[in-house]
Recover the amino acids of this structure.
């Protein structure tokens, strides 16, 4: 079995494992972000470039480094390979470039976006994004359209990751949408709006890493961090029936599939469970769901926060924003300090 070293952690992995999968086996902060790769979707990955890493040694047989960053979700591990992710300032700079590129046309209208709080792009922008844009041209904009009676498409927010297309191809029994056109006029569309009607189409919403595909039964009902995730299940003839209910008091505001620490769906669910079962009596409640992602979605669920790690992250971000001139970033610094104090208080109150 090939051995690979990622950010100084060595691991032996099965033949054919990609660098991203190997990093996930190690776990923790060394795992590259992934906006288009999705374990459950065949052929996913290779579109967004957020998962790039630096290969400083190709293999034991051929130790030459790979001269350019490679996408970790599509590059297979070789025996003796050495990879740098968080340990390479050069690579982090390249990733900042990728994020800047992803945000060129993106509105970043998080305050009014349903995905806020559980958005991979929001987290990525926070970790690697610039405070301002250098882009001077007109941004692409699109009208919002209904691509079915249950799903609304905000194409302006789409990053063309192709995950929803792969869900439609692989999970539903007929695909009626896809990426039309190419280059800077590429867009997700159905040709004729309002045609996505399929028992499993709601899974497209779950795999969308941004707020481009939204649940029309939940839109604008609540910020996601004001809802409480609860694990529940029911007998269902179409799917596993195991879901996460997002509740406010006794009311079920939305139903989603359960997601793992990489924000990937554990098991697909059908539209009946997702959209038509918002009565609490239809469910057997298992208990509160633990949220693993580091995001505002964990608001009111402060657990095991390592304040020293947070301090390092705050310092890194200030530096990444060109923070030699701290005055220029004073409001950001004050915000971070306030957040840290709030977290400290929350932790102390738990002790
Ligand atoms: S998709 Fe994400 S980054 Fe974009 S506006 Fe919505 S929450 Fe913000
Ligand atoms: S709509 Fe969402 S899932 Fe589909 S390509 Fe765009 S970002 Fe990806
Ligand atoms: S996650 Fe690897 S290219 Fe998108």
């Amino acid at each position: 079995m090939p051995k690979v070293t990622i950010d100084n952690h060595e691991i032996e992995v099965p033949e054919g494992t990609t660098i991203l999968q190997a990093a996930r086996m190690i776990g923790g902060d060394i795992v590259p972000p992934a906006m288009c790769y999705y374990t459950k979707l065949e052929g996913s990955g290779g579109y967004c470039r957020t998962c790039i890493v630096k290969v400083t040694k190709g293999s034991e047989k051929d130790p030459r480094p790979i001269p350019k960053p490679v996408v970790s979700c599509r590059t297979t591990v070789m025996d003796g390979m050495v990879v740098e992710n968080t340990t390479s300032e050069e690579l982090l700079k390249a990733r900042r470039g990728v994020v800047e590129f992803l945000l060129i046309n993106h509105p970043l209208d998080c305050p009014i976006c349903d995905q806020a709080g559980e958005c991979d792009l929001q987290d990525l922008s926070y970790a690697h994004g610039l405070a301002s844009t250098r882009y001077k041209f007109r941004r692409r904009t699109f009208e919002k359209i209904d691509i079915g009676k249950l799903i609304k498409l905000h194409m302006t927010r789409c990053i063309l990751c192709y995950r929803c297309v792969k869900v439609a191809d692989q999970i539903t029994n007929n695909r009626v949408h896809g990426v039309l056109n190419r280059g800077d006029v590429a867009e997700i569309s159905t040709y004729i709006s309002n045609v996505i009607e399929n028992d499993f189409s709601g899974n497209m919403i779950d795999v969308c890493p941004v707020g481009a595909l939204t649940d029309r039964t939940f839109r604008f009902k609540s910020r996601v961090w004001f809802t409480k995730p609860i694990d529940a299940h029911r007998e269902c003839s179409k799917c596993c029936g195991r879901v996460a209910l997002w509740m406010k008091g006794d009311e079920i505001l939305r139903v989603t599939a359960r997601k793992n620490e990489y924000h990937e769906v554990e098991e697909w669910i059908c539209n009946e469970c997702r959209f038509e079962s918002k009565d609490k009596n239809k469910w057997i409640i298992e208990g509160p769901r633990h949220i693993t992602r580091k995001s505002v979605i964990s608001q009111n669920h402060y657990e095991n926060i390592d304040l020293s790690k947070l301090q390092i992250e705050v310092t890194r971000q200030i530096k990444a924003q060109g923070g030699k001139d701290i005055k220029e970033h004073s409001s950001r610094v004050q915000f971070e300090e306030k957040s840290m104090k709030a977290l400290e208080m929350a932790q102390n109150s738990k002790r």
About this structure: The first helix runs from residue 19 to 26.
